[in-house]
Amino acid sequence: MSNSSKQITNLLTFDIEEWFHANYEQVTPDRTKGSSFRAHMDTLLQMCSDAKCKATFFTLGCIGEDYPDIVKAIAREGHDVASHGYAHELAYKQTREEFRADVQKSVDILENLTGTKVLGYRAPSWSIVESNLHYLEVLEEFGLVYDASIFPVKTFLYGIPTAKTEIHKPIVNGKELNLFEVPMSVMRVAGRNVGYSGGFYFRFFPEFIIRKAIQSANRRGKSSIVYLHPREIDAREHKLELPSKEHFIHYYNIKGTKAKLANMLEAFSFTSISEHLSNQYKR
């Protein structure tokens, strides 16, 4: 790895949810099958420990209810426990008051478990879009430090393709919020923004492309953000019954994800969002 890459710290994030947490209409998962969630979390925490890095764990409130010991373990190991909402509901299908109640419920659960203030939020399925961008005002009212819900791309599910691609304080209704927006990393391909370092994109692109994209961002002084779900490191985990297109997006190349993540943790420096912000910006 180049010295320029070493000098930049990238951001490691996980969306902490079960295999059945998704937002596909007319899909009712059989939750009685159980899951390997505990084993996945043990693996992720051990990988972070081995790499000597901190990460941000965007955790559902219902996970806090079902696995309080795991949430406590995340915090005990010095990671950032942030909110992913309560039950993986799409923010753009909630009213502002429903969104407020959802975030409040998750924050209360997580703070009661960890004894520390929740600093950040990521909407399930990147569901802060142009139509509900003003929901960020709710996060500011809660005193959160950052949001990481905006993906500067356009897909059939989410995205704000014209959104800023660097960390910034967003302007909503003509006012700059006292809240950092930490948008998902993108690269330019044929004049369009494309993700490369998380979820489907992380699984889809060959490792050398991801490495080059992170190195390119780091040379420009920018951090790249990795995001993954616990289910993505285990090809044997139960799967949702999805149409072919959605199945491809949700499960393509899961068998290669764990090794690819391990290689990235070895090649680049990573930390949590809150630690990065406290190091780089005056709060």
TrEMBL record:
SUPFAM superfamilies: Glycoside hydrolase/deacetylase (SSF88713). Residues 23-222 form the NodB homology domain. It comes from the Bacteria. It holds the Pfam family DUF3473. InterPro entries: DUF3473, Glyco_hydro/deAcase_b/a-brl, NODB_dom, PuuE_HpPgdA-like. This is NodB homology domain-containing protein.
